[in-house]
Design a protein that fits this description.
heterodimer, A: 408 residues, mainly beta, twelve-stranded mixed beta sheet, 12% helix, 38% strand, elongated, B: 334 residues, alpha+beta, 2 domains, six-stranded antiparallel beta sheet, two-stranded antiparallel sheet
Chain lengths: 408, 334
């Protein structure tokens, strides 16, 4: 009996060792890049790398490829990783391993993306800041936070400023939570693209070109974005001119859009505040460019919109950027709605109607204005194609399941 | 001259850790002159990756009484545990006069351990008599005189271990890229005469077999070849390891490996996805007939780390390849 308990204690001792791991401390000073990069290569699963308070100026990108480690600074104002003199590396910080937690530091002025995570199962980004400090410029890097092809993605308490594409961008990923974060002065504040199962809540998106975008694009390994909940966010005063380099899809987003849903399925938008968006508060649209991709579905379906608060919008439509604002301005004759749906559906649905579970459902206050187009009337030209009556879109909300990442 | 008459250190190749000094492996009997041990056999590839105009010398080592096996045309040989692939990067002091010697930069190793391949690089010291392990990479500011008598400067980067994986990872496992049967099917001037490399590897018992009906890639620099074949060969070796359905850049949908045939995935009228300012304000990867409107060429020319492709391993623009790709896009028809 005694023998067994002794073995058990030894076992517990080693177990606790392997779980807690060791702490590795990096301080500012000469060769900080080499010391930090070497530590991130030699680190073992379970270890924590602590980047002490201070200002770190790097000429080369950083990368991490070890599973199950934590990299933590002393706060987003205390630990600053500055890449303004970056000479090599397509991003500031690249993570390619699983089960990584990044916390409490800032990445400034990366030449490309600030923080990119590829193919991770389990990535937590907590209290981090990515910023281009010279204000909105097309020469800023594309993305602040950029997890792609990843699973179990948590972005919590982060700040993203000045990205020339999206401040927080989650692409081709699954099981995602973006919360308590702030995105400002980016082209897109928060963008969820070609992704499955996402909760986006308690965020502030302001002074971007567009606040929150839920997009799906063709010709990519993962498409068919679906099951996205956008709730309890403030998407307000998005008033920055579009500064995306041409060629990028967000380059078509007009200044002053609160939330745009494009070509996704099963999206629930509720309890948000959308206000001060000069073009339109909420826009639900199809992918309108040509594509030969047979596996791609270009229309939004199963979209539910309810209990949102709408402040002033449409007072300064950005008709010079992309087609959306211009088309909406012309169709509405200048009476810009709070909510716009382009009404585009497959030909069969134009003729025979939409299946019940694909229909747009809206439960909003009387005062909330709406505009959609009946494509068949539009094409035939027999009567006005415009519909503004919300009542025909009333229905019962079927709430989507919340996202659960290991109990978070 | 520092000579070493012992055999290659097989135990170090298999060891869990990398030694600090390259010389400990005993791959070379003369380090500075890069004279290999006689079991360490030099080879060349038909089509090679551009690395800032640096020169590369390659060697293969397979332990005695073992052989690499051939299994597929598009794959590298299956090397036995204990094998090593060795590659030294250097600039000649003066490209016009090889007798002036060379400036050794780094020697990269791919070591076949029990658990799979592992990559590590050793950077040469100023004395050029030893190379030291560099886990986090290293910056070497270096210059050389090119064929035109011009001094060239480059901020050469020795890659860190993670950057090795950016190119050498397939399904998250490190794998060699170069030594495919089809890519070494050419003659080489050995000390004992000029022979086809595959024949020579058979004679030296490095490999067990190879197929007789190989279709080899063209040497992209061979102007007697069809330009489409040259460009596809260049893009395959310089871009295709990431830009392929299993590579690091698969999320882009741009696939430049040799086997891709779909125009949209080769970039023709393909819009950028998450390119940001990498697009340079251009709308498509390739616009047939319009190289100046093609993102692919723009990113080959750029020296900006946030724009340039490939993402690592290049600080200079590859003028000759840029011209070839420009000509190729001009010739493409809508």
């Amino acid at each position: 009996m005694k023998n067994i308990s002794c073995k058990f204690l030894v076992f517990v001792f080693f177990l606790s060792l392997s779980i807690s791991g060791k702490d590795i401390l990096i301080e500012p000073g000469p060769n900080a890049h080499e010391r930090l990069q070497e530590a991130m290569i030699l680190i073992n699963e379970g270890d924590t790398l602590i980047i002490e308070s201070g200002y770190y100026e790097f000429e080369d990108g950083l990368s991490l490829d070890v599973d199950g480690v934590t990299v933590v600074g002393r706060g987003m104002k205390e630990t600053i990783l500055d890449f303004k003199n970056q000479q090599s590396g397509a991003q500031g910080f690249l993570v390619t391993s699983n089960g990584v937690t990044l916390k409490d530091f800032s990445i400034l002025d990366a030449k490309g993306d600030a923080l990119k995570v590829i193919g991770a199962k389990g990535i937590s980004m907590i209290n981090l800041r990515t910023e281009w400090t010279g204000g909105p410029k097309s020469t800023n890097g594309a993305y602040g936070f950029y997890p792609v092809e990843s699973e179990d993605v948590l972005i919590d308490g982060c700040v993203a400023i000045g990205a020339s594409d999206a401040g927080i961008y989650v692409g081709q990923s699954k099981n995602i939570i973006v919360r308590n974060s702030i995105a400002q002065y980016n082209v897109a504040g928060i963008e969820i693209e070609n992704s499955y199962y996402a909760d986006v809540y308690d965020n502030l998106a302001s002074h971007n070109t567009g606040g929150i975008l839920i997009f799906d694009l063709p010709d990519l390994p993962q498409q068919g974005g679906h099951h996205i909940r956008v709730f309890d966010n403030e998407s307000i005063n998005n008033d920055t001119d579009n500064f995306a380099p041409e060629g990028n899809i967000v380059g078509e987003v007009p200044r002053g859009t609160g939330i745009i849903i494009m070509a996704n399925s099963n999206v629930e938008v509720f309890n948000n505040l959308m206000s001060g968006n000069g073009t339109v508060n909420l826009s639900i649209v199809s992918y309108s460019d040509e594509t030969d991709d047979p596996n791609y579905y270009p229309h939004p379906r199963g979209i539910q919109v309810h209990n949102n608060t709408y402040g002033p919008s449409g007072f300064d439509p950005d008709v010079g950027t992309g087609d959306l604002a211009k088309a909406l301005f012309e169709i509405s004759d200048g009476n810009m709605p709070d909510i716009f749906w382009d009404g585009v559906v497959p030909m069969s649905q134009m003729l025979f109607g939409q299946p019940k579970d694909e229909k747009l459902v809206m439960v909003e206050g009387e005062e909330v204005s709406f505009l959609t187009i009946s494509p068949i009337k539009y094409m035939l030209g027999i009567s006005s194609p415009i519909r503004t009556d919300k009542s025909e879109f009333k229905g019962v909300i079927n709430p989507l399941e919340p996202i659960n990442i290991n109990g978070i | 001259m520092c000579t070493n008459l012992h055999g290659v250190n097989n135990e170090l190749i298999l060891s869990d850790t990398f030694p600090n000094k390259l010389s400990e492996f005993n791959f070379f009997i003369d380090n500075s002159a890069q004279v290999p041990h006689d079991k360490v056999v030099p080879y060349e590839l038909i089509s090679t990756l551009f690395s800032d105009y640096s020169y590369k010398q390659r060697w293969v080592y397979v332990p005695i009484n073992q052989k690499a096996t051939y299994y597929k045309e598009s794959s590298v040989f299956d090397f036995p545990v204990g094998s090593a692939l060795i590659k030294t990067f250097y600039y000649p002091i003066d490209e016009r006069d090889p007798r002036q010697g060379m400036n050794l930069l780094e020697t990269r190793l791919l070591l076949r351990k029990e658990s799979g391949w592992e990559a590590v690089s050793y950077a040469w010291n100023d004395e050029q008599n030893e190379a030291f392990k560099k886990i986090a990479g290293k910056t070497i500011n270096v210059s050389w005189i090119n064929f035109f008598g011009e001094e060239q400067d480059v901020r050469y980067r020795v890659p860190n271990v993670n950057q090795c994986k950016e190119c050498h990872a397939a399904d998250d496992m490190i794998t060699p890229i170069g030594p495919k049967a089809r890519n070494i099917n050419k003659d080489f001037k050995y000390d004992d005469g000029e022979f086809n490399q595959l024949n020579y590897w058979m004679t030296k018992q490095i490999i067990d077999s190879y197929p007789l009906d190989l279709v080899s890639p063209v040497d992209w620099s061979d102007e007697s070849q069809n330009i489409n074949d040259r460009v596809r060969s260049y893009l395959d070796v310089n871009c295709g390891h990431c830009h392929s359905p299993k590579g690091n850049a698969n999320s882009t949908g741009l696939y430049l490996h040799l086997d891709e045939t779909r125009d949209i995935h080769l970039g023709v009228y393909k819009k950028p996805v998450a390119t940001g300012r990498g697009s340079g304000g251009l709308k498509y990867s390739i616009v047939p007939g319009k190289p100046e409107e093609s993102i692919l060429l723009h990113r080959m020319i750029s020296l900006d780390p946030g724009v340039m492709m490939p993402e690592s391993g290049r600080a200079l623009s590859h003028k000759e390849a840029v011209e070839m790709v420009r000509d190729w896009i001009l010739l493409l028809k809508e």
